Amino acid sequence: MQQRYHAAEATPSGFVFDSEQGSLQGGQIEAGIATDPILTHFVYRTSAGNLAYQGHNQIGLPLRTRTDLRLSELRLGLGPSRTWPVGGGGLGGELGAAEQQIKRDILPSPMSGPLTETMRTRSLFVGASWLRPLSRASRFSCITSLQYQRSRSRELRVDAHGAVDTLTLYPGAASAWLADLGLRYAPSPAWWLQINAGYTSMRFGTASPRIAMRAGMPAAIVSYPGSSQNIREIGLAATLVL
């Protein structure tokens, strides 16, 4: 799985506090359990990469460095094991829950020290997919899918590696849209291969400022202005239905 990642944190006035962009590489494990009329769907995916970082230090001076970024996500979905005939293909649906972690290690620069931010979210999602064979007897099909995800809980752990004590912020509501277009090869109803092109758009709300302590004394005010994070990807996946 190859991804192109871009993220930006901006204030309500539009000032971009920092941004990251670059390529990520990773993979996913996917499986389904069919117990008619329900299909239980499991997905675990992870990707990582070293990104270009542009931002500002605590006194507003510009800085440039690199970020080691790792994304991981576990999803559990439930949907009908059979699709509804629509437009020469089959329409399916899914409801489920997801847990995601975004860990960024911002490397030190001449203007700043190291910083590790770990965002954890738990979400619910709803999705629909449409699968259409290329011909009546073909093992190849086109598939398109769309999902909407809304967080139920969020926490952002900020570790300044001793500059101040580690603290946790609680960003506001987060949401995401996920869209995919793929080509599936299914030699058997029990398993298939699929190549996908996808786009994910994530939005995280602001977090109230907190006082960061050092050795029991107030040392800084830490806040989170919210962020937008976008991922474009292309990948190959194998699915097994038990």
Tell me what the structure shows:
There is one protein chain. The protein contains no helices and 14 strands. It has strands at about 1-10, 15-35, 40-55, 60-80, 85, 90-105, 115-135, 140-160, 165-170, 175-190, 190-205, 205-215, 215-225, 225-240. The strands form two sheets. Strands 1, 2, 3, 4, 5, 6, 7, 8, 9, 10, 11 and 14 form a twelve-stranded mixed beta sheet that branches. A two-stranded antiparallel ribbon has the order 12-13. Strand 3 and strand 4 form a beta hairpin. It is elongated, with a radius of gyration of 21 Å.
In short:
With about 240 residues, this protein is mainly β. It is about 0% helix and about 80% strand. The chain has one domain: OPCA outer membrane adhesin/invasin (Lipocalin, Beta Barrel), CATH 2.40.128.100.
Structural topology:
Blueprint lengths: L1 E9 L5 E20 L2 E19 L5 E19 L3 E3 L2 E18 L8 E19 L6 E20 L7 E3 L4 E15 L2 E14 L2 E8 L2 E8 L2 E15 L1
Parallel strand pairs: 2-14
Antiparallel strand pairs: 1-2, 1-14, 2-3, 3-4, 4-6, 5-6, 6-7, 7-8, 8-9, 8-10, 10-11, 11-14, 12-13
Could you list some keywords that capture this structure?
14 strands, 0% helix, elongated, Lipocalin, 242 residues, twelve-stranded mixed beta sheet, two-stranded antiparallel ribbon, mainly beta
